[in-house]
Amino acid sequence: xxxxxxxxxxxxDGSSRTVEVEPDETVLEASERTDRTVPxxxxxxxxxxxxxxxxxxxxxxxxxxxxxxxxxxxxxDVAAAFAYRREPRALKPRHRExxxxxxxIATPRMDCRVAVGSRARSGLVDNPWK
Amino acid sequence: MSDADTPGDVExxxxxxxxxxxxxxxxxxxxxxxxxxxxELAYVMSLYTGTxxxxxxxxxxxxxxxxxxxxxxxxxxxxxxxxxxxxxxxGWNACSSSCHVExxxxxxxxxxxxxxxxxxxxxxxxxxxxxxxxxxxxxDVFEYDLSAPHTVHCVPEGKIIISMLGDAxxxxxxxxxxxxxxxxxxxxxxxxxxxxxxxxxxxxxRQNVMVSTEWAxxxxxxxxxxxxxxxxxxxxxxxxxxxxxxxxxxQTIDLGEEGQIPLEVxxxxxxxxTHGFVGxxxxxxIFHFWYDADAGEYRAEKAIDFEAREHEDWExxxxxxxxxxxxxxxDRYLFGSNWLHGELWMYDVSDPSNPRRADSLxxxxxxxxxxxxxxxxxxxxxxxxxxxxxxxxLYWTTSLFSTWDDQFYPEESERxxxxxxxxxxxxxxxxxxxxxxxxxxxxxxxxxxxAHEIRWPDGDCTSDVWQ
Lengths: 130, 467
What we know:
The structure holds 2 protein chains of 2 kinds. Helix content of chain A is about 15%, strand content about 25%. Chain A contains 4 helices and 7 strands, in the order E-E-H-E-H-E-H-E-E-E-H. Chain B has a single domain, classed as YVTN repeat-like/Quinoprotein amine dehydrogenase (Methylamine Dehydrogenase, Chain H). The interface between A and B is large, with 35 and 41 residues. Chain A: Keywords: 2Fe-2S, Electron transport, Iron, Iron-sulfur, Metal-binding, Transport.
């Protein structure tokens, strides 16, 4: 039996929806099976258009024997929540520490909740002079 | 009374038999100026990539005929087959550089996706209703270890060369991709390894020279502008002079601290000239370059310096960000945009070494005096510019690049871009905003879109090169 992970996408308008992601699928690919695709550009992890931010990860299914990790955490570990198909070149170390994830090349390893859309992505850089 | 009105005068010949002109374009830049008719349509790169509108990018057809009922409206949209392209720059299958090639027409637009690396071909046989006819998929581009297509120029004999800013992973080096006249990938134009960074290019075949500029690796500029990357040397400041026939770099000039991020580059239109200009976007300076015959090499000198300005809401002085330049077809004026300041300018370059400010317009952006047109608030400054062949009408759009827009003008994604126009008096060197002209991408049916590069069906001031 193949196990899917439920990824809750928090849209910029405040609404949310859940996509079921197959084990060999990226979040972008899963969203393409629905009526609304998460934003994307290069599909190779270079451009960052698809960047989302991990808000919450449920480690219960991924590590069911680890009692301490059974509850959603306030400071979710994006490296544990997603496996990458290739190197996420658009992200700098500070972005990964802040929970950013490139949804075009990321496959979830647990149920999680992710902020998506242009507002989530625009946190990658700010106006350096203002 | 003009010559043409003289009784008994013979209709002036337009067949250029003395040049053997049978193909696309015009025999000379002056012929383009004389024979080019007023632009009645514009093709404009239009995009949803990077916004929350879940739709593909499109080529907008804009009505520029003042006598038309749909003047200054988007009258057609050619949707791309996939989402996420970021349409940006584009070009023709043929221009005046092939004006001796019988049977070749200026008809197909080569429309790359900057982020997707997908390359589209749009047939404009029906000018008001162009049609997508070919698509080169990203995987076929990546096979040549190239990505991020940018500047498209047609070169003699119907070939097309596209500057590519990265390798297949969005890292350095970039290079150039060549398409044949059937819009198939012919291969890499240059031997790999000639350059690291790439951006825009222009060629001057009679002088056997091409010049190319530098932005950064796609993975660096794609996500947005990070000042740390400049400090780390990840943005360009060099220009490269190539042997056009051999496809090899003969000379590289480092423009230094005052030449950071050299983007748009133009040789003068006259095919004899070795003079040209490049806009260093971040430093907000214009460099003049020319061939120094005595030294046997090209030289570059800062010719125009736009000072950063203080703004009460900004912690640091605001650079102009000189993101686009172009030369009028008669090579008398250099026009450009300071996107962050909100300024369009016009310099007399009849002596290219000594540009003389002719006029400017303060519109939109951070400091622009004009804040709205026809009640439409301007979200961003002037960015991509295009000039009529006769040099009398300057048009511009307001989007730079989706992620960079979001940093500096976040409202651009919510309101959409606009296209505006100024009337130019080339005799007196003046610019005047035409407040009757406004095209609003905020009113697109699927939601607000951005607008970038502009072209006319019969060639424009950034499309044509002469052999």
